[in-house]
Amino acid sequence: MLKVVDLEKSYGKKKILNQVSFLLNRGEVVGLVGENGAGKSTMLNILATITKATKGTVQLGDYIYGRKVEDIRKIVGYVPQELSLWEEFTVEQNMLFFSKLSWKKRTKEECRQLCLNMQLEQWKEPVKSLSGGMKRKLNIAISLLHDPMLILLDEPTVGIDMKSKNEIGKYLVKLAKEQGKIILYTSHDMNEITTFCDRVYAIGQDPFYTNLLTNNGVQVDRL
Ligand SMILES: Nc1ncnc2c1ncn2[C@@H]1O[C@H](COP(=O)(O)OP(=O)(O)OP(=O)(O)O)[C@@H](O)[C@H]1O
């Protein structure tokens, strides 16, 4: 369970998040939507322990944010908007490099299996030769190396074709349903959000997203 209570974040005098509270349960895929600059990445960065909240509390399982950050990082996976890959290295070399940085030890076969689970089969190919969709899949596979409980993805499907989008979306649902992961992800593609998310949080004052998704039968709560 991820419990966020009365979270606030300001940059200088500018308040980005104001008294945000919500609860995510294991096995859920939840969307986070809102216009550019609404605070989606800020929210994910706080949950990923990259940015500190100005006020409020966050609890993930038995861990309270703000105390031992290393304990939280062991159970949180974060996929940033930008690809963080070694372009000159092969898929295999990227997976093995990042697995060495992880606290959880993985065999080469397990690393490969994580890629295959994502329908990423180009194990021996350099990243620079992969399509955008394959790179996105590798970025996600790397975030799963330490088997996190909470997976945060910042626009994981931006700029990729519908087939890869569909494969990634289906895989996220499978991870949540079969392994009890908590998945929170942002996207500007409302079709994708409607297809893969159990429910959605809309951030910001503008009711545009709330109205659009509610009209499509999606459960939306405003933050
Ligand atoms: N380090 C920072 N210092 C000052 N302001 C910041 C900082 N990071 C973000 N902001 C501001 O906070 C607001 C929210 O930004 P954020 O990136 O969280 O929005 P977003 O909803 O993710 O937008 P997008 O859809 O464009 O990715 C923006 O006005 C942004 O300029």
From TrEMBL:
SMART domains: AAA
Top-level taxonomic group: Bacteria
UniProt KW ATP-binding keyword: yes
Database matches in InterPro entries: AAA+_ATPase, ABC_transporter-like_ATP-bd, ABC_transporter-like_CS, ABC_transporter_ATP-binding, P-loop_NTPase
PROSITE patterns per record: ABC_TRANSPORTER_1, ABC_TRANSPORTER_2
Pfam families: ABC_tran
Domain ABC transporter: from-to ranges: 2-222
Key words, A-Z: ATP-binding, Nucleotide-binding, Transport
One term of GO molecular function: ATP binding
Sequence similarity: Belongs to the ABC transporter superfamily.
Name of the protein in question: ABC transporter ATP-binding protein
Organism this protein belongs to: Ureibacillus manganicus DSM 26584
